[in-house]
Amino acid sequence: MRLFRLLPEPWRPHRDEFRRTIGLALPIVAVQLGWMLMGLVDTLMVGRLSARALAAVALGNLFFMGVTSFGMGVLMALDPLVAQAVGARDRLAAARGVQRGLVLSAALALPISLALLTAAPVLASLRQPAEVVPLAAGYVLACIPGLFPLLAFYALRQSLQAHGRVAPVLWSVLAANLANAVLNWALVYGKLGAPALGAVGAGWASSAARLLLALAVLGAGWPLLGPLVRPWRADAFALRPLGRMLRLGAPVGLMTMLEFTAFGVTGILMGWFGEVPMAGHQIALNIASFTFMVPLGIASAGSVLVGHAIGRGDLPGARRESGAALALGVGFMTASALVFLAIPRVLAGAFTTDAAVLAVAAMLLPIAGVFQVFDGTQVVSAGLLRGLGDTRVPMLGNLLGFWGLGIPAGAWFAFGLRLGPSGLWWGFVVGLGAVGLLLLARTAALLRRGVGRVRVDDDTAEHGVMAEPA
């Protein structure tokens, strides 16, 4: 498919841009799939205990990830800071970025941990099953010790990606997956001399695996990371640059939470139709989430490569890198959309033999095929804007698209027009369509006029450039 020929001439990539994007995106996609596998192992292990334990882990993980997604999003500020420093061959700025990322990880861990302590009352106030809430809260509490390692891993991961080095991250995720499986087996069922902790044991296994994950990525990436974290700089603790870094990353964190909670609210609304629509919704959403990993990886690669181009002052190169990322991301999602439209029952049939659940999932997947194209557009555009140093507009776009349009439209379609479960998913189409078109237009505008390099230090004159996009 020659999708790139639809791009304006200045955006049309050469073979080198495609090669770089694919070469960086593929291992990032593998990392994302490995991350999903850790959650799948938790589900498989606990699912053998009881429906209550399975529900507790699902609910607890939903709460944990919903709260911590803000911190993980904040650390994506490292994408433009470190990638542009790499492009400019500014090792001092790159070192500052990595060290401040670790400082922010520690600083964010405390308030997020305090928020996680509210799991029991919050879940109870949301009228979750009374017999599930204590187990879910126990799972969340067991995950808290692994919070700082998880955030530190994200800081190191983003720093390595910004340097174009993903292999250490991939090997670390594979090692953590193996450890997570063994620890789940031991702590959930009481093997290898460990106590049988059930659903809470899955939380402790996750904490231990996340500690291993942080140590493994630090060790595997040490040839690159070592010179960046040693010697430790006193200005890594400087409050003004940390504050600017937080202002750059906070919109990404809020955007991540907005999207995460929007899908969560839709799941709650779907539950009002009963367990069969909810099960079909979950199957269709899992399939769509799996294909989403590809444009998500392309978005991360595009963010890095555009950041490199801006760092070296190469605006035409930034346009071509953006064109390559958009062509690959939207092209893949267009192909997956055609598959969703062509064989929805075959795809859903791999997850269930229940005829009623299969019918709901098969009904929703073609709608997913429609919003897949917009989803690819919005996630790749958001990644490119991050590489350009623009994080506020994507956050506002998500707020408008998901909460201003998508959820209200979905609720109206489902309950006002009586379209039922499919109406909620047509709300996804409205929301993602609005976000995708808005972010694509913003990307085009910034690349047309050009942007300067993003810096958070006061000594910008020493390095010659800095203009944060308006």
Task: Describe how the helices and strands are arranged.
Blueprint lengths: L14 H33 L3 H24 L3 H10 L3 H26 L2 H7 L7 H11 L3 H16 L4 H23 L9 H22 L1 H8 L9 H33 L3 H37 L3 H28 L1 H6 L5 H34 L3 H25 L4 H29 L10 H4 L7
Structural write-up:
- By secondary structure, the protein is mainly α.
- The chain has one domain (3-460).
- Helix content is 80%, strand content 0%.
- It has 18 helices and no strands.
- Residues 460-470 have low confidence and may be disordered.
**Uncertain regions: pLDDT < 50 for 5+ in a row?**
460-470
CA radius of gyration: 22 Å
Helix content: over 70%
Structural category is mainly alpha
Query: How many domains, in number, for the residues?
Result: 1
Inertia-based shape: globular
The major beta sheet can be summarized as: none
- For the record, give the distance between the C-alpha atoms at the N and C termini, rounded to a whole number: 35 Å
Number of helices: 18
Q: How much of the polypeptide forms β-strand, as a percent range? A: under 5%
Mean of all residue-level pLDDT scores: 87
Number of strands: 0
Compressed to H and E, one letter per element, the order equals HHHHHHHHHHHHHHHHHH
Concise synopsis of the structure shown:
By secondary structure, the protein is mostly helical.
List keywords for this structure.
disordered C terminus, 80% helix, single chain, 18 helices, mainly alpha, 470 residues, globular
